[in-house]
Please model this.
Amino acid sequence: SMGSMSWEEIARGLVALGGSIAIVAIGVNTMKGAIPGAAALLIVAGALAIFVPMLMLLGSMSLSEICKGKR
Model:
């Protein structure tokens, strides 16, 4: 639960959430018209399918591990 999370964990989660929202916003802004919009939505869905496991991995790492680039 969020109540048991440290401030470091909460900060990491918020940064990851902000990044994912930015990616979705960019994708949604490219949706103009039916066919291009559907294609953009498929791209966003695919990106999220790849991005979510990476967010889970980042969430399990400490900030020092993320900065070093090693697990």
Notes: The mean pLDDT is 77.
